[in-house]
Amino acid sequence: MGLLYLALKGTDTKKIWTELKGAHYKWIFLSIIPSMLAFASRAWRWKMLLHPLGYKPKFSNTFYALMFGYLANLALPRLGEVSRSVALNRAEKIPLDVIIGTVIAERAIDVVSLLICIALTLILEFDRIYSFLVTNLFEPLKDKMYTVVHSGLFYIVLVILIGSAVAFIMISRRKKHSASLMEKITVFIKGILAGLTSVMKMKNHNMFILHSVFIWVMYWLVTYIGFYSLDATSTLDLKAALFVLVAGGLGMTAPVQGGIGAYHWLVSQGLLIYGISQTDGLAYATIVHTSQMLLMVLVGTASFLMLSVNKNQKPVPDVSA
Q1: What phi, psi does 70 have (nearest 5°)?
Q2: What is the pTM of this model?
Q3: What's the N-to-C CA distance of the chain in angstroms?
Q4: Within a domain: residue 208?
Q5: Disulfide engineering: 31 pairs with which of 118, 122, 145, 225, CB 3.0-4.6 Å?
C-alpha cells in the first residue's frame, strides 16, 4: 500500500478515476483469454518437469495448485511457491522436496525468459530502455546501496547475523541428534536438486521450450490488448507492449504482494517515454493489474475449492460383483 501511495503521489487521482470510468472494458475482458491460456500452458509445463522424475500428476491438479499459489501470493510475497508445492504434494502424493525443486527450476526459467525479453527490447528500443533502466532502476539502487552501506545500522545487523550464524553452528554441534538432522537436510536438498535437474532429463525439450515461449507471448498479448482499453494508450504498438511487459515484469519481481505499487510505478514511468502522461500511465497500470488480480482471485479461489473437494472425495466401491 505504501508503494501504491508513492506511485499515486503527486498525480490527479480524480482524473485517473475519470479515465477508469471511461475505459473500454471489452478489451480487458478480451485480455482474459491469453491470460488463461498462459496459466494453462504454465500448468502443463510444470507437469512436464515432473515427468522425468517418475511422477505423472493430473493436469487439473497442477492447474489448481498453480492458481492457488497465485492466490496465496496476494497474501504474502513468494508464499505462492510454497503453497502450490504443498497443494500438489497433498493432491498427488509427490515428495515435497521434489516439487519445490521443479518450482525453483521454473522460476529460474522465468528469469531467463525475462532477460531474453529485456535483450529483445534493448535491440528494438535501445535508447528508451537504457534511459528507463538508468533513471528508474540503476541510479535509485546505487543511491540506496550507498545509503545502506554507510549507515551504522547496516553494520549492527551484519554483526547480529554473523553472531547468530556462529551460535547456531555451535548449538547444532552440541545436539545429540545433529547427525540425523543433517541427514534429513541432505535428503531434502537432494530432492530439490532432482527437481532442478528435471529439465535436463526431459525427453521433449522442444515442447518445453515452445510452452515457455507461448507463456511470454501471451503475457505480451495481454499487455498489448490492454492498450486499447484507454484512448491515451490505444495508438501504442507491439514494441511498446514489449517494453511495458519488461517494465511490468520487473515490478512483479518485487517482494510485495502481487507486485502492487511496484508494477504501477514502473509501468507508468515506462509509458512516460512514449509520451503517455503519468496519470494515463497509472490508469492503464491500474486497469491491467486489477483485472489480472481479480482473475487470480476468482480462479485461485475456485481452484482451492476444487482441491478441497478432490481431497475429501472417497473412492466409489465396486458393487458390480
Answers
A1: -60, -40
A2: 0.74
A3: 62
A4: yes
A5: 225
